[in-house]
Amino acid sequence: MIFDVSKTKSIANTFITELRDENIQKDSMRFRKNMERLGGFFAYEISKSLKYTTKDITTPLGVSPCEVLVQQPVLATILRAGLPLQQGLLNIFDRAECCFISAYRKVKKSGDFVIQMDYISTPDLDGKVLIMADPMLATGQSMVMCCKELINRYKIEELHIVAAIASTEGVAHVRANLPKAKLWLGAIDEEMTSKSYIVPGLGDAGDLAYGEKV
Predict the structure, then answer these.
(1) pLDDT band for position 115 (50/70/90)?
(2) How far apart are CA 65 and CA 39, in angstroms?
(3) Whether 198 contacts 136, CB under 8 Å
(4) 45-90 confidence digits (pLDDT tens)
(5) What is the rounded CA–CA span in Å between residue 69 and residue 51?
(6) H helix or E strand, kind and range, residue 44
(7) How far apart are CA 97 and CA 82, in angstroms?
(8) C-alpha span between 174 and 131 (Å, rounded)
(9) What does the alpha-carbon distance between residue 34 and residue 38 come to, in Å, rounded to a whole number?
(10) Lower CB density within 10 Å: C or N end of the chain?
């Protein structure tokens, strides 16, 4: 299943427009906020697919049957760029536990790269719904590697992948390697550069959110 915001009429498209705009990007606080707001939007959409139960809630004037989540999801992200998107999800799923993964592109002298994963901090994921957030789904290699590592360690009930911008190549790679995952995407772009940056994309989400790395 793929949910593509760009195919809908939604205020979320305004957030994506501002994330892409090279002039608005100069305000790193607004960039982080737009990424956070997009995460909140995806949380609402994902929440419609989760399991609920009816619970009687006592009000000052009586009892009301209310629909409540059976279980909070676990919110995972790949450091550092994914933090604002994850925070947006956490604003809605405010009782959720979180998972953090350190993964990055290790570039060879030839210009090729491999994905290096150094660190995972996670709660128990057995029987849990996992939402993995990363702003950019370019080649899809880091996303697949991180998700497969967690799947190998735990019996995850359901996997959702959230990204602000994806490439067609990245989507194909994820669907081929994680066929049961549900994808929630802000937009899908057709091209990538020789260095595997999405075009038109929005640039380096981590640098735009937190400053250029050395």
Answers:
(1) low
(2) 29
(3) yes
(4) 999 999 999 999 999 999 999 999 999 999 999 988 999 999 999 9
(5) 6
(6) helix 28-47
(7) 16
(8) 14
(9) 6
(10) C
In CATH, which of 3.40.50.720, 3.40.50.2020, 1.25.40.890, 3.30.428.10 is domain 2-50+69-106+113-210?
3.40.50.2020
82 contacts: CB under 8 Å, gap ≥ 6: 133, 134, 135
Q: Looking at residue 165, what DSSP letter applies?
A: E
Return the SS3 of 115.
strand
Whether the upstream peptide bond of residue 200 has omega within 30° of 0, thus cis, is yes
* Residues 69 and 52 sit within 8 Å (Cβ to Cβ): yes
Alpha-carbon distance values, 90 to 17, 53, 203 (Å):
23, 21, 24
- Asked if pLDDT for residue 36 goes beyond 80, the answer is yes
Provide the CB-side half-sphere exposure for 57 (13 A, CA): 8
Instruction: Check whether 107 has a pLDDT greater than 80.
Output: no
d(CA 10, CA 83): 23
pLDDT at 118 > cutoff 90: no
Task: Kindly tell me the burial class for residue 63, based on how many C-beta atoms sit within 10 Å of its own C-beta (0-12, 13-18, 19 or more).
Answer: exposed
**Mean pLDDT calculated for residue range 157-162:** 98
Residue 191 near residue 160 (C-beta atoms within 8 A): no
**Residue found by looking up tokens 């899809």 in the block:** 140
Tokens 């989507």 — which residue? 171
Q: How many residues does the chain have?
A: 214
E strand or H helix at 118: strand 113-121
